[in-house]
Structure formats: C-alpha cells, structure tokens
Amino acid sequence: MNGLENTSLLYLEDVYKIYGGHTVLDDIDLAVASGEIITLVGPSGCGKSTLLRLVLGQEFPTSGTLLIDGEFPGFPNSTRGIVYQKYSLFPHLTVLKNVTAGPELNLGFFERRQKKAELIEEAEHYLEKVRLAEHMYKYPHQLSGGMRQRVAIAQSLIMKPKILLMDEPFGALDPGTREDMQMFLLELWEEIGMTIFFVTHDLEEAVFIGSRILVLSQHYTDDRGNEDGVKRGAKIVYDHSLEKMASATSVKDKPEFSELIRHIRQQGFEPEYQQHVKDFDLKHHHSFRTINQPEYDPE
Amino acid sequence: MDEQKPDSGVEKLQAKKLPIFWGLHAEPPKGLRWLLIIIPFVLLVALYLFASDYRHKRNPSDKLLPTVSKMADAVKRAAFEKNKRTGERQLWSDTWASMKRIGIGLGFSAICGLFLGLYLGLLPGIRNLLLPFITFVSIIPPLAILPILFIVFGVDELAKVVLIFFGTFPIITRDIYLSVKKIPREQIIKALTLGASQHAVVFRVITPQIIPKLIDTVRVNMGPAWLFLIASEAIAATSGLGYRIFLVRRYLAMDTIIPYVLWIVLIGLTIDNVLKMIIRYKFSWYLANKD
User: Fold this and answer.
1) For residue B209, which residues of chain A lie inside 8 Å, CB to CB?
2) CATH code for the domain of A27
3) Is the pLDDT of residue A250 over 80?
4) What pLDDT was estimated at residue A53?
5) Complex ipTM
6) Average pLDDT of the segment spanning A64-92
7) How far apart are CA B21 and CA A161, in angstroms?
8) Across the interface, do B195 and A139 touch by the CB < 8 Å criterion?
9) Extents of the domains making up chain B
10) CA angle A250, A256, A262 (to 5 degrees)
11) Across chain A, what does the average pLDDT equal?
12) Which class in CATH covers the domain with range B78-289?
C-alpha cells in the first residue's frame, strides 16, 4: 500500500486476467490521477481491450484490486463513460435524443416530460461543444463517421462520468478525419479537463493525444525462466508523461516526435527486444510496481 | 494497331446496348417494367374467360367456371342483400368474424412473442430455461394438435384463436429473439454507462429498436395465420370466410368461392401494405440500417 489508492482516480494493483489457463494481463499496477488523458497502446492482441473492459466493469479481474475513486466500481454504470469505435449510438434516436438519452434514462415517465425543455437545453450545450448543433434532428445513419463519434462523445459527457473510456474511437475513420478528431478531442480536453482513458493501436495517435502514455506488451522477460509451464501475460512496460504543448498536428513532423515514437516502438512492439522486468521504463511520477518474487529474484 | 485494340473493345462494349429483359445485365425501361408486372395477371384472366366461355357454349348451366356476371350476382347477394335466415349481410359478417379471430390470435402472439423474445435474447437465465422448450414447441405442427384444441377449448371461438396463436407465436418469438441477439453488446453496455437500470435497458433501449422488426415478422406471419384460420373454420364454425368457402363447396358454388378468395387476397394485401407504410414513415432508421 502506498497511499495512491486513496488519491488516484483509477487504481489497479496486482491485477491479473486469466482466461482458462491463458494469462492475458499479468500483474498490472497502475495509478491514474484525475484530469489526465491516458493513452494505452500496445501490439495487437496484447490485452488493451481486456484492460479497458476491466475498468468499464464489463469483466472483472481474476485477481487483484481495481478501484475508481477509492471504491470498487462493479458493473458498468454512470461513473464511467464509454465511446466505442462502432455501435456507440442508438440507431433509432436522433442526434438530440441520443444526447438526452443519458439523463432521460435516469428519470421516470413524468419527470422526463416535465424536464423536457431543460434536458434539450443541456443537450444543445453539449452539441455546440462538439459542433453538431445544426445536425441535431438527424439520425446516426445520416451522419459521417467523424460526426457520429462526436455525438458519442457528447452523449457520454452529458453524464459527467468520472472517467471517459475510449476504445479505438477513431480507428474506423479516414486519415484526414482522424487527425481532425484528434485535434478536436485535445481541444475539448483542454476546455473541460475530463479524465480520459484512450485505447489505440496507433502509436503516433497515442503519443499525440496522451498526457501520459502507457505501453502494454507481452514482449519482455523476467526470472520465471522459459520452461513450458511459464505463461506470461502482458505488462505495462513503458509509462511516461508527455508534454502537452500547442496542440497542432504539425508537432507530428518534428524530429523529437518521431524519435520518441521510434524509442517506444522498440520498447513495446519489437518481439526481439526483451527487456527484463526490473528495467522497464516507468518514469511517470505516479508509476509504481509490486514485483513478486518469482518474476524478479536478485539472488 | 495493337495499341488501339483495347479502345475499340471498349467502344464495342459501349455500342452494344444492354439487354432490356433477358440475362444478368438486363435493365428493363420503366414502361416495360409496368408491362411485365401486368402480363401474368392479364394472361390468367384471359385464360379464365376463354375457358369459361368455352364451357358455357357447351353447357349454359356450367358451374365450374362461372361467368363474370354470375360472380357479380353472387357478390351482390353476399355483400348487399340481407340473408333471409340470419338477417345479416353475409360477406361482411363473415369478414368480421374472421378478422376478429386473426386479430386476436395474431395480436396475442405478437405481444407474447415480443416479451418472450426480449427476455430470451437479453437474460441468460431465461434463455437457459426456455429456449430449448420454445424450440420444441415450434416444431409441433399446429394442425396436428387441432383436434386437441377442439377437445380442450371447445368448437367455439377460443379454439380457433388458440390455433392461430399457437401456429404463429413460436416463429415470432424466435424471430424477435434472433434480432435481439443481433443487437451489439456495446449498445447494452453503453446504456448502462448512461445510468440505465436493467429494466430500462430492456424496455427503453432495446424494445424501441425491436418494434419495427416485430411489425415485419407479423407481416410474414399473416400467411400462416390465414392458413390456420381457414383450416379451423373449415372444420367447425358458423361464420367466417373459410367457413363460407367450405360450406358452398357442397353446391359447387364457384361463383361464391372465387370472389371470396379474391376478397381474402385483397384484405391480405391491404394489411401488408398498411404495415409496410407504418415502417416506412415511423421507422425510417430501421430501413436505413437494414443492411
């Protein structure tokens, strides 16, 4: 125990996720402060989405502690918002109704009707924030991919979740729209200051968006040896804070940016580059680890 | 010369007109499309008139293929003249009796199918409890248990309604169940993160998405519903469209049977189109998302 479990918005300690003998997440320790925009990146199949589902409450750790605001979070509820790559929006509702859906689902039949004007006003406020006020009477199928994701963000934000989870939200967009959405999300984050947990497989996107980057990877080694019985799952192998300077996509062309990406790619994405558990590059000031004996044996 | 070859090939292709009727690439022009629709109907009517005329020439009192005027007379009698014995206008009282049976039977099976389908699709416990049972029930041929229904529910209205219910309910339930299962898991999780209760997920998030599907499956089940209606009316009834057809069969009264069949077709088409319109105007998003 280190006190972080009380001060962090999201706190994981010794979290394992094992599916029938196959370890996916292998002793994850993580503390996230409020107001961060965390990007989680890693090679495909490393368990990024599994970790997100644990935070969401759609699945539970096989063992270990997971706390949100110091409490055990349980099944999905309004403490966590979610934006998926697809299917975030309700196809049978207009944009406006999609955004008011959250507050309305929490009200009874009569209250909903009494507060109608209030709800619409609030929804319009969020729709203006995501620059979609003029499209509010359209249905999701009438919108472009980028617009749909913006509605999904407004739909989640109206519930003021403690943490907004995003699962490859821009993965299905074309490159131009994708860059616009990255900029848009950063501007929105600077304006509102919500906590975001952003999962992506695109390293460039992760470095561009995040105020803190986590790399989850199964390419590492430890003192458990390489016998047949040893099955390692993914660990967080890289944890740094990122300078969030003037957020313009032009930073992507700077040499520091590509140097950082090259560095992270080597640490997390190259199967041949096997770092030892004790050497992981975990520089973020909230980073902590509880290494268990068999993994790291100084003797 | 060689370089020009592909060009001339393209020209050849462009010059070649698309077939208007035959083949994979056919593109019938608009006028022809209407003509094509009408052709089978015109052929059928022409064939009938010819055959009827031929038979009447040989035997003026032929009953098998009545002339149009004979049918018109029969319709007039059935639709506008009060029956001497019952004092009712027969066509309308028959229609009302049949529609009531179909309406109640199919209505009940739509409501039960909707609820059961929702629960089967969303609640794993209920799915384990009831899905194999529903599958079992759906394989029983409804007509095979018609005698049981008559014995248990009597030969009155109830047995007929139960037959229609029994014949359509398992199919509607399975249809709803399958489309509930097709709704992405993300939608449910999303609703929960918006603070929805389990109850609200079922009835305020999933149900509105399923309603147009329900209308669609009711449309499809109109066919079986008519089948079960007429089968039960043929066996035991005192009124109804199916009852009338089977009653006048004894007198070879084709002049009544044919208009009655056409009337059933007209009712079926009207109901189908009304339901289609409801989907088009009330659930435009449903048509847009249907692949």
Assistant:
1) 90-92
2) 3.40.50.300
3) no
4) 93
5) 0.90
6) 91
7) 60
8) no
9) 1-65, 78-289
10) 110
11) 85
12) mainly alpha
